[in-house]
Amino acid sequence: MRRILSALLVAVLVTASAKAQSPTAEQIVDKYIQSIGGVKKWKALKNMRLTVTLRTQGIDLPGVVNTAADGKQRMEFTFNGARLIRAYDGTTAWVFDQFSGMAAPTKLEGEAASDFTDEEFLDEFIDYKKKGAVVTYLGQEEYEGLPYHKVGKKEKDGEEATFLFDEETGLLLLKRETVDGVASETQYQDYVNQNGLTMPMKVIGKAAGQILQSLVVNKAEFDVEMPADLFVFPKN
Q1: Model confidence over 69-85: pLDDT tens digits?
Q2: What are the phi and psi torsion angles at 13 (to 5°)?
Q3: What is the rounded CA–CA span in Å between residue 153 and residue 132?
Q4: pLDDT band for position 18 (50/70/90)?
Q5: Helix H segments across the chain?
Q6: What are phi and psi of 113, to 5 degrees?
Q7: How far apart are CA 123 and CA 218, in angstroms?
Q8: Most buried among 8, 86, 210, 229, using CB within 10 Å?
Q9: How many CB atoms lie within 10 A of CB 65?
Q10: Domain range spanning residue 30?
Q11: Could you give the CA distance from residue 65 to residue 181 in angstroms, rounded to a whole number?
Protein backbone atom coordinates (compact mmCIF):
# COMPACT_ATOMS: atom_id res chain seq x y z
CA MET A 1 0.00 0.00 0.00
CA ARG A 2 2.85 2.38 0.87
CA ARG A 3 4.43 1.81 -2.56
CA ILE A 4 1.13 2.44 -4.31
CA LEU A 5 0.60 5.70 -2.41
CA SER A 6 4.18 6.80 -3.15
CA ALA A 7 3.77 6.06 -6.85
CA LEU A 8 0.46 7.94 -6.91
CA LEU A 9 2.04 10.93 -5.16
CA VAL A 10 4.89 11.03 -7.68
CA ALA A 11 2.41 10.89 -10.57
CA VAL A 12 0.41 13.76 -9.11
CA LEU A 13 3.55 15.85 -8.56
CA VAL A 14 4.77 15.20 -12.11
CA THR A 15 1.39 16.13 -13.55
CA ALA A 16 1.22 19.29 -11.43
CA SER A 17 4.75 20.24 -12.46
CA ALA A 18 3.95 19.77 -16.14
CA LYS A 19 0.87 21.95 -15.82
CA ALA A 20 2.85 24.62 -13.99
CA GLN A 21 5.42 24.69 -16.80
CA SER A 22 2.82 25.03 -19.55
CA PRO A 23 1.45 28.59 -19.59
CA THR A 24 -1.74 29.52 -21.35
CA ALA A 25 -1.72 31.52 -24.57
CA GLU A 26 -3.24 34.43 -22.69
CA GLN A 27 -0.41 34.39 -20.14
CA ILE A 28 2.21 34.37 -22.90
CA VAL A 29 0.57 37.29 -24.69
CA ASP A 30 0.20 39.23 -21.44
CA LYS A 31 3.90 38.72 -20.70
CA TYR A 32 4.76 39.91 -24.20
CA ILE A 33 2.71 43.09 -23.84
CA GLN A 34 4.39 43.82 -20.52
CA SER A 35 7.82 43.15 -22.04
CA ILE A 36 7.29 45.84 -24.69
CA GLY A 37 6.17 48.45 -22.18
CA GLY A 38 2.59 47.68 -21.29
CA VAL A 39 -0.78 48.77 -22.65
CA LYS A 40 -0.91 52.07 -20.75
CA LYS A 41 2.36 53.44 -22.16
CA TRP A 42 1.62 52.41 -25.74
CA LYS A 43 -1.90 53.84 -25.65
CA ALA A 44 -0.53 57.15 -24.33
CA LEU A 45 1.65 57.47 -27.43
CA LYS A 46 0.42 60.04 -29.97
CA ASN A 47 2.77 59.35 -32.85
CA MET A 48 6.04 57.76 -33.89
CA ARG A 49 8.74 58.59 -36.41
CA LEU A 50 11.22 55.96 -37.57
CA THR A 51 14.30 56.71 -39.64
CA VAL A 52 14.97 53.45 -41.46
CA THR A 53 16.89 51.61 -44.13
CA LEU A 54 14.95 49.19 -46.30
CA ARG A 55 17.02 46.55 -48.06
CA THR A 56 15.25 44.94 -51.00
CA GLN A 57 16.56 43.27 -54.17
CA GLY A 58 20.11 44.03 -53.05
CA ILE A 59 19.46 47.79 -52.79
CA ASP A 60 19.45 49.90 -49.62
CA LEU A 61 16.72 52.53 -49.56
CA PRO A 62 16.89 55.20 -46.83
CA GLY A 63 13.52 56.37 -45.60
CA VAL A 64 11.30 57.84 -42.92
CA VAL A 65 8.10 56.27 -41.58
CA ASN A 66 5.61 58.50 -39.75
CA THR A 67 2.62 56.98 -37.99
CA ALA A 68 -0.02 58.48 -35.73
CA ALA A 69 -2.40 57.03 -33.17
CA ASP A 70 -5.42 58.13 -35.24
CA GLY A 71 -4.34 55.82 -38.08
CA LYS A 72 -2.60 58.37 -40.29
CA GLN A 73 0.65 57.21 -41.81
CA ARG A 74 3.29 58.14 -44.33
CA MET A 75 6.39 56.28 -45.48
CA GLU A 76 8.89 57.83 -47.83
CA PHE A 77 11.95 56.24 -49.44
CA THR A 78 14.52 57.76 -51.78
CA PHE A 79 16.97 56.34 -54.31
CA ASN A 80 19.04 58.13 -56.96
CA GLY A 81 16.93 61.26 -56.63
CA ALA A 82 13.61 59.40 -57.02
CA ARG A 83 10.98 59.18 -54.28
CA LEU A 84 8.46 56.59 -53.21
CA ILE A 85 5.71 57.89 -50.92
CA ARG A 86 2.82 55.84 -49.57
CA ALA A 87 0.43 57.63 -47.23
CA TYR A 88 -3.00 57.64 -45.59
CA ASP A 89 -4.57 60.78 -44.11
CA GLY A 90 -7.41 59.05 -42.29
CA THR A 91 -9.71 59.25 -45.31
CA THR A 92 -7.64 58.93 -48.46
CA ALA A 93 -4.82 56.49 -49.21
CA TRP A 94 -2.39 57.63 -51.87
CA VAL A 95 0.94 56.86 -53.50
CA PHE A 96 3.63 58.74 -55.40
CA ASP A 97 6.02 56.23 -56.98
CA GLN A 98 8.76 57.81 -59.04
CA PHE A 99 10.59 54.46 -58.97
CA SER A 100 7.91 53.21 -61.36
CA GLY A 101 7.79 56.39 -63.42
CA MET A 102 4.68 57.86 -61.79
CA ALA A 103 4.39 61.53 -62.71
CA ALA A 104 2.01 62.66 -59.96
CA PRO A 105 0.52 61.42 -56.67
CA THR A 106 -2.39 59.01 -57.19
CA LYS A 107 -5.27 58.08 -54.91
CA LEU A 108 -5.71 54.41 -54.03
CA GLU A 109 -9.01 52.58 -53.81
CA GLY A 110 -10.33 49.13 -53.04
CA GLU A 111 -7.90 46.45 -51.93
CA ALA A 112 -4.87 48.69 -52.57
CA ALA A 113 -6.25 51.24 -50.13
CA SER A 114 -7.20 48.62 -47.54
CA ASP A 115 -3.52 47.85 -46.99
CA PHE A 116 -3.42 51.24 -45.26
CA THR A 117 -6.85 51.46 -43.68
CA ASP A 118 -6.37 48.02 -42.05
CA GLU A 119 -2.93 48.90 -40.66
CA GLU A 120 -2.86 49.39 -36.89
CA PHE A 121 -0.76 51.87 -34.94
CA LEU A 122 -0.52 49.69 -31.84
CA ASP A 123 0.84 46.17 -31.61
CA GLU A 124 -1.68 43.64 -32.90
CA PHE A 125 -1.85 41.90 -29.51
CA ILE A 126 -3.01 45.00 -27.65
CA ASP A 127 -6.78 44.67 -27.15
CA TYR A 128 -6.85 41.57 -29.36
CA LYS A 129 -9.80 40.14 -27.43
CA LYS A 130 -11.88 43.29 -27.99
CA LYS A 131 -11.18 42.91 -31.71
CA GLY A 132 -12.59 39.38 -31.67
CA ALA A 133 -9.30 37.48 -31.98
CA VAL A 134 -8.63 34.20 -30.19
CA VAL A 135 -5.22 32.85 -29.14
CA THR A 136 -4.26 29.22 -28.56
CA TYR A 137 -1.16 27.71 -26.99
CA LEU A 138 0.45 25.26 -29.42
CA GLY A 139 3.30 24.01 -27.23
CA GLN A 140 7.02 24.57 -27.57
CA GLU A 141 9.05 24.82 -30.76
CA GLU A 142 12.82 24.84 -31.16
CA TYR A 143 14.11 27.52 -33.50
CA GLU A 144 17.81 27.84 -34.28
CA GLY A 145 18.61 25.68 -31.28
CA LEU A 146 16.51 27.55 -28.72
CA PRO A 147 13.05 26.74 -27.29
CA TYR A 148 10.13 29.12 -27.82
CA HIS A 149 6.47 29.22 -26.88
CA LYS A 150 4.27 28.79 -29.95
CA VAL A 151 0.92 30.60 -30.03
CA GLY A 152 -1.77 30.52 -32.69
CA LYS A 153 -3.99 33.56 -33.31
CA LYS A 154 -7.26 33.56 -35.24
CA GLU A 155 -8.81 36.87 -36.22
CA LYS A 156 -12.51 37.64 -36.27
CA ASP A 157 -12.49 37.42 -40.07
CA GLY A 158 -10.89 33.96 -39.98
CA GLU A 159 -7.30 34.92 -40.81
CA GLU A 160 -4.77 32.87 -38.88
CA ALA A 161 -1.10 33.19 -37.93
CA THR A 162 1.34 31.54 -35.55
CA PHE A 163 3.90 33.28 -33.33
CA LEU A 164 7.04 32.27 -31.46
CA PHE A 165 7.76 34.01 -28.14
CA ASP A 166 11.00 33.91 -26.18
CA GLU A 167 10.39 31.90 -23.03
CA GLU A 168 12.67 34.05 -20.88
CA THR A 169 12.12 37.61 -22.10
CA GLY A 170 8.58 37.18 -23.43
CA LEU A 171 9.48 39.04 -26.62
CA LEU A 172 8.19 38.06 -30.05
CA LEU A 173 10.70 36.36 -32.34
CA LEU A 174 8.65 35.20 -35.30
CA LYS A 175 5.32 35.50 -37.06
CA ARG A 176 4.17 32.98 -39.67
CA GLU A 177 1.19 33.44 -41.97
CA THR A 178 0.01 32.66 -45.48
CA VAL A 179 -0.32 35.62 -47.83
CA ASP A 180 -1.91 35.07 -51.25
CA GLY A 181 -1.25 31.36 -50.91
CA VAL A 182 2.45 31.83 -50.10
CA ALA A 183 3.87 30.94 -46.70
CA SER A 184 5.57 34.01 -45.24
CA GLU A 185 7.68 34.57 -42.15
CA THR A 186 8.52 37.79 -40.34
CA GLN A 187 11.41 37.78 -37.89
CA TYR A 188 11.93 40.45 -35.21
CA GLN A 189 15.42 41.17 -33.92
CA ASP A 190 17.57 43.61 -31.94
CA TYR A 191 15.00 44.83 -29.44
CA VAL A 192 15.77 48.18 -27.80
CA ASN A 193 14.06 49.91 -24.88
CA GLN A 194 13.54 53.64 -25.31
CA ASN A 195 11.48 55.80 -22.95
CA GLY A 196 9.98 52.65 -21.46
CA LEU A 197 8.84 51.31 -24.84
CA THR A 198 10.55 48.25 -26.33
CA MET A 199 10.58 47.55 -30.06
CA PRO A 200 12.60 45.55 -32.61
CA MET A 201 15.19 47.54 -34.53
CA LYS A 202 15.38 44.99 -37.32
CA VAL A 203 12.58 43.17 -39.13
CA ILE A 204 13.23 40.50 -41.76
CA GLY A 205 10.57 39.34 -44.21
CA LYS A 206 10.74 35.93 -45.87
CA ALA A 207 8.54 34.06 -48.34
CA ALA A 208 8.96 30.45 -49.41
CA GLY A 209 12.09 30.34 -47.25
CA GLN A 210 13.81 33.21 -49.06
CA ILE A 211 14.59 36.65 -47.60
CA LEU A 212 12.62 39.24 -49.57
CA GLN A 213 13.53 42.33 -47.60
CA SER A 214 14.77 43.63 -44.29
CA LEU A 215 14.06 46.85 -42.44
CA VAL A 216 16.56 48.38 -40.02
CA VAL A 217 15.45 51.16 -37.67
CA ASN A 218 18.29 53.63 -37.33
CA LYS A 219 16.39 56.04 -35.09
CA ALA A 220 13.06 55.97 -33.27
CA GLU A 221 11.30 59.14 -32.07
CA PHE A 222 8.07 59.35 -30.10
CA ASP A 223 5.49 62.14 -29.82
CA VAL A 224 7.26 64.48 -32.25
CA GLU A 225 5.95 67.54 -34.05
CA MET A 226 4.39 66.59 -37.40
CA PRO A 227 3.15 69.13 -39.99
CA ALA A 228 -0.63 69.16 -40.36
CA ASP A 229 -0.39 68.42 -44.08
CA LEU A 230 2.20 65.64 -43.78
CA PHE A 231 -0.31 62.87 -44.54
CA VAL A 232 -2.71 64.77 -46.79
CA PHE A 233 -3.03 63.99 -50.51
CA PRO A 234 -1.30 66.84 -52.39
CA LYS A 235 -3.68 69.13 -54.30
CA ASN A 236 -0.98 70.18 -56.75
Answers
A1: 999 999 999 999 999 99
A2: -65, -40
A3: 11
A4: very low
A5: 2-21, 25-35, 39-43, 110-117
A6: -75, -30
A7: 20
A8: 86
A9: 19
A10: 23-222
A11: 28
